[in-house]
């Protein structure tokens, strides 16, 4: 080993390979860095005469020409051995000096590799490869930082977001007041009076639809931009209210379907007797309130209406010839289902009355 070998050990392997190729050293493909440095040291020492003019190897040959350590002609001063602590004493089987020498040599090689004197410029291909590798490494690191720690954390985050969204929807639904309106509508429709009102509205609405014709007013222009065709506008012809063709059928339906049954339900009132307890003129406050609620007997109302419907629209009872057969037939054709539909409505009222009485008895 020559004195120039530490200089070669400081270099990196690509630099050693470049020097070997420049000095025409062959058979170096299978050598590692240490063996390559030793082979290159031997090759350069043997060919010092021809390679000493290479400027890039000036440091090596300068170091090679220097005397080796321990061979200086100057007389060494007597070495004074200092006392070493007990922990630094040699122990059998260990070689601390060699380890210190190897570590110092590695640190020297690393310092030499970092120094700009021994760095060789990279070509364009190596520089582009280095830049692309650093870019890929930065992308991988940023992607790794953005990834969640585990799927369980992702699932918990989704569950929390879903629960928060559900709570927001429930709060918005409650604040909108739809629930209160729903309960109010349900309470209003859950009574026999509401059922009777719905039946009468169906019959009366069908009567008005048949008796009041629609009159053409105008036509809206078509809008091609939104594909809206022209629409005719029709309004109810209210001039029919001045003719007998409207009032005769409507009055017949009003008498047979509402007014006369209500009169019968007011005077023949079994629920009124049950509410007052047959006390006559003297009534308590509670019995008076119950009597006010039972001012019309729904059972009597529906039975009276069924009898009138059958007699008027089946037997053509004209109330002392006040209404013609044409009027009776027109009412019968205007109501949904005719006289059969009106009898069905009375049957629904009777069943509802009996069911409500059973519920009150329980």
Automatic annotation (TrEMBL):
PANTHER family (UniProt xref): GLUTATHIONE TRANSFERASE 3
Keyword Transmembrane: yes
Transmembrane spans: 246-268
InterPro entries: Put_GTT3 (IPR038872)
Stretches with biased composition (Basic and acidic residues): 98-113
Keyword annotations: Membrane, Transmembrane, Transmembrane helix
Region (Disordered): 68-150
Origin species: Penicillium cosmopolitanum
Keyword check for Transmembrane: yes
GO cellular component: membrane
Lineage: Eukaryota, Fungi, Dikarya, Ascomycota, Pezizomycotina
Protein's UniProt name: Uncharacterized protein
Positions with biased composition (Low complexity): 125-139
Domain of life: Eukaryota
């Amino acid at each position: 080993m020559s004195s120039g070998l530490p200089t070669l050990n400081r270099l990196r392997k690509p630099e050693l390979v470049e020097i070997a190729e420049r000095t025409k050293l062959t058979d170096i493909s299978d050598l590692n860095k240490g063996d390559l440095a030793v082979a290159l040291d031997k090759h350069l020492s043997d060919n010092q005469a021809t390679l000493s003019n290479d400027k890039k190897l000036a440091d090596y040959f300068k170091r090679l020409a220097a005397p080796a350590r321990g061979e200086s002609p100057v007389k060494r001063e007597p070495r004074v051995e200092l006392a070493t602590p007990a922990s630094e004493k040699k122990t059998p089987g260990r070689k601390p000096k060699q380890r210190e020498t190897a570590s110092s040599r590695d640190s020297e090689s690393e310092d030499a590799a970092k120094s700009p004197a021994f760095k060789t410029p990279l070509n364009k291909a190596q520089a582009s490869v280095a830049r692309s590798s650093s870019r890929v490494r930065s992308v991988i690191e940023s992607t790794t930082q953005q990834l969640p720690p585990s799927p369980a954390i992702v699932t918990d985050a989704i569950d929390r977001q879903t629960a928060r969204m559900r709570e927001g929807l429930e709060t918005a639904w409650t604040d909108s007041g739809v629930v209160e309106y729903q309960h109010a509508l349900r309470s209003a429709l859950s009574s026999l009076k509401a059922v009777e009102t719905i039946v009468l509205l169906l019959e009366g609405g069908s009567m008005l639809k048949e008796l009041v014709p629609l009159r053409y007013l105008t036509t809206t222009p078509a809008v091609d931009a939104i594909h809206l065709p022209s629409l005719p506008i029709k309004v109810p012809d209210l001039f029919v209210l001045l003719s007998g063709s409207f009032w005769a059928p409507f009055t017949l339906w009003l008498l047979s379907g509402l007014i006369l049954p209500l009169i019968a339900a007011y005077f023949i009132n079994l629920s009124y007797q049950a509410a007052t307890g047959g006390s006559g003129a003297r009534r308590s406050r509670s019995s008076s309130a119950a009597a006010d609620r039972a001012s019309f007997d729904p059972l009597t109302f529906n039975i009276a209406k069924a009898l009138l419907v059958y007699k008027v629209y089946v037997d053509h009872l004209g109330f002392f010839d006040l209404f013609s057969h044409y009027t009776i037939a027109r009412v019968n054709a205007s109501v949904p289902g005719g006289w059969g539909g009106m009898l069905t409505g009375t049957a629904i009222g009777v069943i509802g009355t009996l069911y409500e009485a059973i519920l009150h008895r329980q």
